[in-house]
Amino acid sequence: MRSDLNRDDEAVRAMIASLWVELGGAPERVRGIELTGAGSWPSVFQVSNFATAAIATAGLALAEWGAVSSGMDQDVSIDRRLASLWFGFSIVPQGWQLPSVWDPVAGDYQTADGWIRLHTNAPHHREAALAVLKVSAERDAVAASVARWRADELETAIVAVGGCAATMRSGEDWRAHPQGRAVMAEPLMRSELGAEAGSFSHDFDPTRPLAGIRVLDLTRVLAGPVATRFLAGFGADVLRIDPPWWDEPGVVPEVTPGKRCARLDLTKASDRERLLELLAGADIVVHGYRSDALEKLGFGAAVRAAARPGLIDVSLCAYGWSGPWSGRRGFDSLVQMSAGIADAGMRQAGAEKPSPLPVQALDQGAGYLLAAAAVRGLTLRHSQAMGSRWRTSLARVGGFLAAYPVQDARGDISGPENEDYASQIESTAWGPALRLRPPVRVGAAHMGWELPAGELGSSDPGW
User: Residue 339: which of 181, 182, 169, 187 has the closest Cα?
Assistant: First the structure.
């Protein structure tokens, strides 16, 4: 058992070092991270190692920020079991129930020549898929229609009308695919310095190291909200903006602690002007729109940088920033199908249908890497008086994880136990809840939130 733990620790430390270098961090800072806890999710890839490494990397960025802000060196401690569990759901309601995460039509379907996944959680995505299939929103009818299609042809047809679907491909097929080749040629985290900024002074509180930092959150399910939840957990003032029509009821209680959530309609001139004002007051903006979506709305990179000199601009897309699918809509479950992950799980398990990861590890891992990039951006602004821009994708994160297969997919984590939860009650907008204990400590700082999880649109759009 001890040798297994040592092997896991060695693998996690190597993964942290790789992630930290991808973020442009100094390699010597990786030394000294304390690893505690034990256990692994059952998976064909090293999901628990990745969870531990990704959250530790975000903690490492906080420690670096603390060092440049205060001159104090801070140690980082990460609990492997809790990190693994935070890659799942962190909240458990007390006396009420979370809405279902998945639309009844969403899921994997057998086609005439393979498998395809339909992502129909958003009403307009469901309508697009049903329009192509020419059926009502009944799962049996959808399955019967899908079975008459070839997978690639159906994927193309649904995507062409604004829907979301993904054929299950093998890892070999993905590596040979034009988009697979394009995204794997990209860095895990692309970064570039932005415009010069004025001198940056900040009163540093070692218990809330991001207190006073303003984060404009333009993200939705799930990676971006995970990133901004982490930033809020260490004191940042996070303001999330959604359009009037958007909702994601199954995950809002999971991702909104510590945030104020407002709505703006960017088809209205007054609301576009308000967003520019919010950008002008932000230190960090995090967005998860498709690569060209903000450009089309009039908020491209140049506009964002001009609104706030020194802005730290952090973004995520699904399939990568280059290649034929760079503008394609996508989600964690779809990218797992496209990139060979669900196929690898199926093959190792000897299963008859796609076998995805036990958690949405691409979303979760990308979220903590985005948070790490945002904090590294603060460090660069402090030391070099420059803004910065950071970009990654779910597909590139998936490629990173896929480079870490396991020989034995068995694991001993199946979900949280009572002792994994903090004892204090979180009074969410829906009722009382418990939340998992923090997985990471950075010096005197522990992840925690002054505001409980709240509903979208429950605050005014202002700092």
Answer: 169
**pLDDT, tens digit, 9 for 90 and up, residues 242-301:** 999 998 888 999 999 999 999 999 999 999 999 999 999 999 999 988 767 888 888 998
Shortest CA distance to 364 belongs to which of 185, 221, 205?
221
- Give 398-407 pLDDT, tens digit per residue: 999 999 999 8
As given in the structure block, the two tokens for residue 85 are: 């569990």
Q: Mind listing the pLDDT tens digit for each residue in 2-15?
A: 455 578 899 999 99
Which region, left, alpha or beta, applies to residue 146 given φ > 0 means left and ψ of -120 to 50 means alpha?
alpha
pLDDT in tens, 189-210: 999 998 788 766 778 899 999 9
Tokens describing residue 330: 């996508």
Contact 318, 290 (CB under 8 A): yes
> Between 146 and 298, where is the model more confident?
146
- Predicted TM-score (pTM) of the model is 0.96
CA dihedral sign, ordered 373, 374, 376, 381: positive
- Here the tokens at position 64 are 């670096």
Q: Count CB neighbours of 420 within 10 A.
A: 18
Cα 349 to Cα 336: distance, rounded to the nearest angstrom: 16
User: What size, in residues, is the chain?
Assistant: 463
Percent of the chain with pLDDT over 90: 85
Following DSSP, what letter does each residue of 146-197 receive, concatenated? HTTS-HHHHHHHHHHTT--EEE---HHHHHHSHHHHHHHTS-SSEEEEEEE-
Tell me how far apart the terminal alpha carbons of the chain are, to the nearest angstrom.
51
pLDDT at 170 over 90: yes
Structural domains of the chain sorted by starting position, each given as residue range(s) with its CATH number in brackets: 2-98+188-320+358-446 (3.40.50.10540)
Helices 394-402 & 361-384 angle (0-180, nearest 10): 110
User: In terms of C-beta distances under 8 Å and separation of at least 24 residues, what long-range contacts does 100-109 make, across chains too?
Assistant: 100/250, 101/250, 101/251, 102/250, 104/137, 104/139, 105/129, 105/130, 105/137, 105/139, 105/142, 107/139, 108/168, 108/337, 108/353, 108/354, 109/142, 109/143, 109/146, 109/147
Average of per-residue pLDDT across 223-227: 97
Pairing type for strands 107-110 and 115-118 reads antiparallel
Average pLDDT over all residues of the chain: 94
